[in-house]
């Protein structure tokens, strides 16, 4: 299945675009304009992605619209890969050696699916002692180019205290689906 999924550059670009616009539906011609490729290439790749259950098609009148299939078992893994290659995850990974002492960085799946930033939701969790100038520079640039992100930085000790006190802000983030950008889920669970 992976061979079928990643063999085409058009397919990869189509997956990236649809994931970055997770909740939206697109007609073939709109996708052609966005990707700058031939219509037959887009149709062929949409058919393959639909057959793999990554996309769903929604007929409406005499047109057919496509979007990511949120129910597909592959989609969460694709979202993780896309956000590590592009967007805030990529920017962090490219600068990880300059970020200082970081134990863990994770991004909320709901944020990746397009949920707007909210003071009640945590989008990005950083555990460690990062170089704040570098990290805040990355976040500021992302917010200027794409959208606002709600983040928090906790030392390992602060994270441990909040976790032990069942702090709703941290616990809510930990129980929701997330994408690990840096560190290990296993190590995160060991911080007790």
Q: How does this structure look, described?
A:
The protein is an alpha+beta fold and 192 residues long. It has 2 domains: 2-68, Arc Repressor Mutant, subunit A, CATH 1.10.10; 86-190, Beta Polymerase, domain 2 (2-Layer Sandwich). The chain is 51% helix and 20% strand. It is built from 11 helices and 7 strands. The protein has helices at residues 2-6, 9-20, 28-35, 39-51, 75-85, 87-94, 109-112, 132-145, 156-164, 168-175, 185-190, and strands spanning 26-27, 55-60, 63-68, 100-108, 124-130, 151-154, 178-182. α6 packs antiparallel against α8. The N and C termini lie far apart (39 Å).
Mean pLDDT across all residues, rounded? Answer: 89
Structure annotation, total helices: 11
Alpha-carbon Rg, integer: 19 Å
The helix-strand sequence is: HHEHHEEHHEHEHEHHEH
CATH level-two architecture of the largest domain: 2-Layer Sandwich
- Kindly report how far apart the N and C termini lie: 39 Å
Question: Into which percentage range does the β-strand content fall?
Answer: 15-25%
Shape: elongated
Instruction: Report the CATH topology name of the largest domain.
Output: Beta Polymerase, domain 2
């Amino acid at each position: 299945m992976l061979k079928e999924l990643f063999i085409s550059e058009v397919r990869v670009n189509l997956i990236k675009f649809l994931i970055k616009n997770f909740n939206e539906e697109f007609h073939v011609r709109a996708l052609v304009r966005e990707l700058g490729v031939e219509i037959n290439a887009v149709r062929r790749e949409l058919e393959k992605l639909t057959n793999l259950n990554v996309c769903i098609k929604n007929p409406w009148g005499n047109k057919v619209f496509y979007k990511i299939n949120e129910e597909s078992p592959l989609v969460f893994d694709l979202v993780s890969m896309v956000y590590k290659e592009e967007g805030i995850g990529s920017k962090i990974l490219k600068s990880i050696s300059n970020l200082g002492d970081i134990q863990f960085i994770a991004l909320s799946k709901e944020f990746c699916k397009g949920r707007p930033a909210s003071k009640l939701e945590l989008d990005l969790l950083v555990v460690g002692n990062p170089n704040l100038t570098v990290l805040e520079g990355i976040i500021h640039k992302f917010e200027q180019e794409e959208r606002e992100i709600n983040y928090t930085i906790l030392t390992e000790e602060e994270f441990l205290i909040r976790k032990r006190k069942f702090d709703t802000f941290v616990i809510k983030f930990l129980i929701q689906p997330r994408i690990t950008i840096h560190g290990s889920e296993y190590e995160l669970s060991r911080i007790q």
